[in-house]
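help with these tokens:
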Amino acid sequence: MAGIVAYGAYVPYNRLDRGAIAQALGAPAGKGTRAVASYDEDTTSMAVEAACAAMATAPDGVTPASVYFSTAEPAYLDKTNATAIHAALGLGHDALAVDMVGAVRSGVGALRAGLDAREPTLVALSDIRTGLPGGSDEANGGDGAAAFLCSPEAGQVIAEFLGSTSTSAEFLDRWRLPGERASHVWEERFGEYVYVPLAQQALQKGMQLAGVTVEHVDHLVATGVHPRAVRSVIAGSGVRPEVVANDLSAEVGNTGTAHFGLMLADVLDRAQPNQLIAVLVVADGATVMFFRTTDAIAKYRAKRTVQEQVASGRAGLSYNAFLSWRDMLRREPPRRPDPERTAAPPSFRSEAWKYGFTGSRCTECGTRHLPPQRVCVHCHATDKMKMERLTDIPATIATFTIDRLAYSPSPPLVAAVVDFDGGGRFPCEMTDVDPSTVAIGQRVEMTFRRMYSAEAIHNYFWKARPVRSSN
């Protein structure tokens, strides 16, 4: 039977303490922190992070025939965002890449479609949750991404898909018009009144379909757009309290479209063989999915667990910086020419380099070139190259500079020259870095980011960041 063969998760590096919101606005904002996408991140770049992590642990020979991307905060409209994820993974042009965007519930629909597909399918979920200053969405939201590689080949599955049921209803609980920054929310008691019976119905039907009872559930992943309704459903479900999964609200916040995926990844990080996982998503109705882990989960190791990423985040992001990154605090722009927009023809011609970070290695002398070249700089052989992706190759800082004059939404700008393991030197910008800790010899890894946006075009490329450690 179909199921999940690999997965990846991404929790951004930066954390905003909710106490900083309360201090700035003089209003309660709760305890703990929320994960914050950096100024150079969006839902597409975070989805690339999660997708790369999933593909790094995929079984040999399993290549996605399709990429499904879901978010409630797409970087583009009238243009497919999944194609950038597809290009960053270095997939061939014969793969299908499509978006399922606009609503939190689209995430569970994307995973259902991936599990039902007849060919291997990569499902990427990503979201950036931001409300107006002082609102509950700002304090309780979070940013993050998750990705799942689904396959119909039972022998490769680490979590077998047992079945799913859904309920749907048309009612106003949470909504946002195109172009609006914050969501509208109806009175909370009404949402609970509608959601609870819908979720209970989906849960009961799902258990009947899967042939299980609440006593069989080893892990319950429960989340949605209405936290009060989710808590009521959990309390009345009869599921043992100890099997209810950590909702990550204290450390990360609710990541909307991606949240059930992030919680599921956290459960899979520590799951044992033959355990039953129930996933409940409450949004515009309710959806329940059941998975059973296989013996393969015992040998599976995620590239970086959710808890490792939670522990390795940097706390102390200022509230002013958060507002600036979200374009809610308008600051004096730099007295420099605006950046030029990215041109479509050269971007298309250099797709493998710009999005897939693919270099070339000379087959005559073994010299690696970044960016790829036709003529070897060492032995001058012409058209004797093979292509090599370096997205997962670590590097070492050879030299760096801290530029306090160049414009950056998070000054100062740190530029470095890095040497990749196996050859290849490349000058690049650094991100997710404390300038005071940068040092020659420091180990870094590449990350897909949005360099800037100009004339409604996002310029994506790769930056270097220090290798994240939970220590």
In short: The two ends are 39 Å apart (CA to CA). The mean pLDDT is 95. The chain has two domains: 3-325, 346-465. The longest helix spans residues 188-210.
